Amino acid sequence: MTTAALDIAAIRADFPILSREVRGRPLVYLDNAATTQKPRQVIEALTHYYSNTNANIHRGLHTLAEEATAAYEATRSKTAEFIGAAHPQEIVFTRNTTESLNLLAYTLGARLRPDDEIILSALEHHSNLVPWQLLAQRSGAKLRFIELTEDGEFDLDQARSLFNPRTRIVSVAHMSNVLGAIAPVADLVEFARAVDATVILDAAQSAPHMPVDVGALGVDFAAFSAHKMLGPTGVGVLWGKRELLADLDPFLGGGEMISVVNREESTWAALPHKFEAGTPNIADVIAFSAALDYLSAVGMQTVRDHDYALTAYAMERLSTIEGMEIYGPPGPERRGAVVAFNYADIHAHDIATILDSGGVAVRAGHHCAQPLMRVLQVPATARASFYLYNRESEIDALVDGLREAGSRFGLSV
Ligand SMILES: Cc1ncc(COP(=O)(O)O)c(C=O)c1O
Questions:
Q1: Is the pLDDT assigned to residue 187 strictly greater than 90?
Q2: Most buried in the list 123, 236, 289, 361, measured by CB within 10 Å?
Q3: pLDDT digits (tens, 9 = 90+) for 281-301
Q4: Is residue 36 in contact with ligand 1, taking CB distance under 6 Å?
Q5: Distance between CA atoms of 22 and 26, rounded to whole angstroms?
Q6: CA dihedral 76, 289, 35, 374 (to 10 degrees)
Q7: Where are the beta strands (DSSP E) in 165-301?
């Protein structure tokens, strides 16, 4: 794998923020798992919308309303195509992955009975844990957890043993935001089908970084966020098989999601509008279209190959530093472009602060995965995460910054 397929200089020229300086040094942005930067095409789509089209959608009969509605619905179709959904009606726009997963926990949860079981994993982001905890408290359902191997991957034998006739739902991260580990989706789908359980993928980290074809994966629902894939904040996607979404009751009630409203009760709009109550985030959904165009033009396999090469390079360079502990699968084959680490006994927050003084932006903390931190037996980690505009020289800057941190803390570097 090489990064030769990407013209990184041309890509970087599309991202205005990448030419700014931080603390007198060129910005090295390695916090892409938290949110990605935006190309000018997305920024321009936003200003173009507000300068030319702004109107409320679905209800107006004037030209602006029709144009805004068409652009909003065009993004829905593009999103469906991007993830291999069978129909645009299968795409529901929410605020983020978190809201998509809460929608599922709330609506699917209405059918759970005490002692039904929900399978999650030990590495879940709080977004794919807390909604299920709330559901378990409401319904009496039990949470079960897939444990991890030494390499931070799902322990498949233990996972298999969790599935039983009481299993109703399995919901896991397609790609871990800490370990980078990629879930064995085909196995989980096989285990789930044998007991007729619903399979949900938290695709917040995978949809931005690899080709994701929901049909080929064979899952029932998937959730992800536009802001982690070059798009604006405030737009989430929930994909679900049409017959499954159609069968669920609404999540939020209000305008737009109804068919007929009487004083005492109402009927619901057709999919996907049943799940989009109130005025949605029209401008940002429309600008998300430009992000999808950008990624499609590059090609998701090319993004994956680039991530792979950068991750391999980062792991190799970091492992040359004495005292470096890298978490997750040992090679880039079964992981995404996320490298979480601790360096000797320097606190992750100190690492991030020292790196920032050299213009290098990384994340430090529990990464919204406190139960995973307990498995790793650390309070926090530092985390570098890459995207299509990153280059090897930025990983060199990260390594230089880490050596600087080491020498400030009196380590031999
Ligand atoms: C694996 C995973 N799931 C869910 C989320 C939540 O995404 P959002 O904050 O956009 O709802 C994140 C964000 O970091 C994530 O990495």
A1: yes
A2: 123
A3: 999 999 999 999 999 999 999
A4: no
A5: 6
A6: 20
A7: 167-173, 198-202, 221-225, 236-240, 258-261, 266-268
Q: Does ligand 1 come within 6 angstroms of the Cβ of 97?
A: yes
DSSP for 285-352, written as a single string? HHHHHHHHHHHHHH-HHHHHHHHHHHHHHHHHHHTTSTTEEE-S-SSSTTB-SEEEEEETTB-HHHHH
- Residues 257-280: pLDDT tens digits? 999 999 999 999 999 999 999 999
Residue written as tokens 């910054």?
401
Structural domains of the chain ordered from first start = 8-30+299-408 (3.90.1150.10), 43-296 (3.40.640.10)
Identified catalytic residue from 368, 373, 375, 378: 368
| Closest among 317, 289, 368 to 123, alpha carbons compared | 368
Is 368 one of the annotated active-site residues of the chain? yes
SS3 389: coil
Tokens representing 303?
């993004």
Query: In the chain, what is the straight-line distance between the N-terminal and C-terminal CA atoms, in Å?
Result: 30
Which residues on adjacent β-strands are paired with residue 238? 92, 223
**121 touches ligand 1 (CB under 6 Å):** no
Please indicate whether residue 173, judged by its CB atom, sits closer than 6 Å to ligand 1: yes
List the structure tokens of 166: 């009481």
